[in-house]
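hypoxia-inducible factor-proline dioxygenase: structure tokens wanted.
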Amino acid sequence: MPLGHIMRLDLERIALEYVVPCLHDIGFCYLDNFLGEVVGDCVLERVKRMHRDGELADGQLAGPSRGVAKRHLRGDQIKWIGGTEEGCEAINLLLTLIDRLVMYCGSRLGKYYVKERSKAMVACYPGNGTGYVRHVDNPNGDGRCITCIYYLNKNWDAKLHGGILRIFPEGKSYVADVEPIFDRLLFFWSDRRNPHEVQPSYATR
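Answer:
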């Protein structure tokens, strides 16, 4: 059986049996060992090169302070990419697989049917206690439906390095802490159902 066919079946099964139920039940989910060590390493090395070559710029704040960088509120450095840039083949594969996963969710996302996505945001927190205060990705209904985050942190120890993504699910009495470990793919609703924060990072994240 061709690899592409196996991949299609696996992604469809994961979407329908895991991603869709989790999003409806608790509003988020994650998949570990998504790309595997070899391909994940290729993505990591490309992102490291962007960081090393100074291609990332300070993340900006939306809202009243739109376009303003305030490091105490948001400490990441970012770059928007499409995946078709030179040397980004592994990133393009990652984006293609994420696109397929979301596509297989199809009409099962309640009132949503995802037809397109934005460019991918490469983000790096340089350590020194940098994080991102509690916020909502899409507070004003700008069309964003699902936030997908792929983590690249090898040998990450959250007790030592911090950097946990804490989700505050709307109307729930609990919080959800997601450690940013290598080859983990996280999905959550982008709207007001999932305020979240990136806790201070004490290593490059």
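Residues 3-25 form the longest helix (23 residues). The first strand starts at residue 28 and ends at 31.

Cheers.
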